[in-house]
Specification:
This protein is α+β, with helices and mostly antiparallel strands. It is built from one helix and five strands; from the N terminus they run βαββββ. The chain has one helix at 34-53, and strands at residues 14-20, 57-67, 76-86, 90-100, 107-119. It has a five-stranded antiparallel sheet, with helices on one face. It is elongated.
Amino acid sequence: MTTDGEEDEAPKGELTMRLQAMPADANADGDVFGGWVVAQMDLAAAIRGNERVGGRVATVAINGVSFRKPVKIGDVLAVYTSIERVGRTSVTVAVEAWAQRHLTRTKVKVTEGTLVMVALDETGSPREIPPE
């Protein structure tokens, strides 16, 4: 799946989001801001968290984010998520971001991390997560 001299590796988790990096997302060198990538990862973790807890979640921690390769303008960012752990009020989501290089079929893992989401009730307070 990759062609950057790396071992073939497949994304882990479920495809949660896809979007194209645009010029407004980039710095002066043409690489996309790391913060933009992390924001997309946070959105994807929230989607997965919402689905698992059956309601609203908020990010309480972003752990171990690793930037492996840059994202370029025109790349399609695909964000994959999987539930790593479910606690009493929080869910830990593993997130991988992959870039399909612009106008090619080349896909490379660009960023990975773990986000912790807390389940919230209607007042914004933590609430217990129901069993699956």
